[in-house]
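Usage example:
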Amino acid sequence: MATTVPGAMPIPSRPVKGNHSPGEVRTCDTTGLPVCITAQKFVKLHAVAAVIFLLIGGVGAILLGLTRWPAVHLLSAEWYYRILTLHGLNMLIFWILNFEIAILYFVPTTLLNTRLYSAGLAWVGFILMTVGALMVDYIIFAGKADVLMTSYVPLLAHPVFYLGIILHAVGALIGVGNYFGTIYIAKRDHTYEGSVPLVVFGATAAAIIAVVTLLHGAVTLIPTWLWSIGLMGPPDPGWYRITWWGLGHMSQQVNVCAMVAVWYLLATLTTGAKPISEAVCRGAFVLYILFINVASAHHILVDPGVGASWKIWNTSYAMYLAVLASMIHGFTVPGSVEVAMRKKGYDQGLFGWLVSAPWSNPGFSGFFLSLVIFGFGGGITGVVLGTQQINIMAHNTLRIPGHFHVTVVGGTTLAFMALTYYVVPLVFRKEFYARGLCRLQTWLFAAGITMVAVGMSFAGSYGVPRRTWDAEHSGATFAVGVDPGAHVMLGLLGVGAIVAFTALFLFIGLVVAAVFFGKSNAGKAMEPWHVERAVPQAARSAHADPDHYVPGTVVLTGVFLACFAVYYFANWKWLADVWWVR
Amino acid sequence: MSIQTLQEGWFKAPVGAERAWIGIAFAWCMVMTVAMPYWHFYGKQNATGESYRVTPIEYTQRVAKFIETYQTGEISGFPIVEPPPGADAYLQAQMWKWTPVLKLKKGQSYRLHISSLDLNHGFSIQPVNMSFQVLPGYDHVLTLTPTSAGEFSIVCNEFCGIGHHLMTGRILVTE
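Running the assembly step on the lines above writes:
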């Protein structure tokens, strides 16, 4: 093949070809995509590690839920804070980072037809991440790190605690480096032609944010570790909070970015959707990279040490441009599904496409529920709680965990669960048992975590603090009255925790049964999660512009914006009624 | 497909509903961008972060002097202190108590200093439900005007060790 440029010598162009060694690649029996065998091994290792940490964090979750429910009040104060430390780190760091590294290895190798950059680096990264996480979990159970996930100085944990987190973060950073290496050799070896697919673009955005995030972790935790072994003085408590949240909040932005990439992937896998406008989707990811990095401010809004202009500029992500990005994804993701479904003939009314969507496919139900919960729950509450002055009514109350349990759990974790219903048959090449339970699992988890978050948010509105063993403050010198409404909400939290934990446990059981005892599907296509009903050609109506015909999505996003505005202005109204402060 | 590479000519500007949504979303973002500076100048509730460096030892001295000057009584072993309107008032956070008990007048403003002698603490007034961060080494000044009278609780809402839930205090506001 040769490209001819008028008036110039013909330039020979290289043919597109994978760069794998012989025997190092297989063709997926379902999708026909190339799968790098080395990458597949590390995807499996990180996925298994992720699920183990999810289980540890999940057991912690149910213990905490049953402690915050005043009628049960299960754990002692000592164990409540210990398990809270464990839960935060295993869920927010170990489970999610492991799953994200699995995604970062899988996405470029498969979609760009390339080998993994380095198996050696992948081993080093995996071992560091695992050893680091085990050190942290060990020292927490040993009772030497009851400092919660944030370990605000001058609280002091055992040095092993900080070192474990540092090793885990370095391991993750090596994994991210391996991802960039893989992208590089794919380009160098010309394994694909044109621009990278949207999912690779999104994963790259997540990887870039991850580098900045993990560097914040290093800046914060290396001095803290040196202090814990006596080589340095104590870090400044104010500075510590700002840089720690550069790790703590930004890592959640990595999750947002990875989750959105997974939404696009699952929309394609389950309905054949393609982005309405590639330029818009990619532009939105670029907005994430540019503006999401200042989110650390969300935790500093009522702190001393930084002034109002710093707080206002940073908390708005520089004029809400990262929020704009999320609102764009919130339109383009359901919009792309609507276009795909209508083109297939599911064209009745405003919502015929949604009603006829493959809800019996856990990959679809999990993805779409994640989209709805993240948007309506996590997105709206996040922006409102992060409004500088409104934060006065929310800081360190249960409203904050109420927000992030519908972003990182109802959003990211549910999306990753949905993806797992494809990872196991396509990467592990094993079929699930009890497929009816698989279909139920995503709904049950969505219901449970929504109850948890609603319970937390409203209890927080009554002023119930987060991270407190006893909301009644029993035994304190000055008694504190707790509104009966708050008790109802804490009860909802407890019941929701039981439902969500049941669904989580079910998920892990189903995955373990499939991975270790499932029927192999090697050599044939995976068993489909849903069978599409054929729609007679006659039923298909013709729209003038079928690629942009999305009336249902317009209504959904209109409802979303109305909810957003009502919640936003209601909070300003509540704020106007509290004491004056400046 | 979001999993396929793109060939040249993929870049197309958004049209129709998608284009309109981007415009609407951007306009909403601008509304929210303007709201915070607006409230900063015209709203009555702002966390401006006014603060100064202070060592725990200096701070205890200021608190002791404040108590000595304005003490009017005692409750449950804690001094009740009634600063005149407009004066500097001091609150000291430490594991696991708030000192002293403040007695304020409704509608009067006070320069309330909060600082910690040991760890991070959370200064949360209930049931008004307002929270501010308390850090050791930082003298955090809130110009506070209670707008309702009664007996209010101070709750610590930043984890500060095993006795965290016992760390409560009092603010009394009279008409």
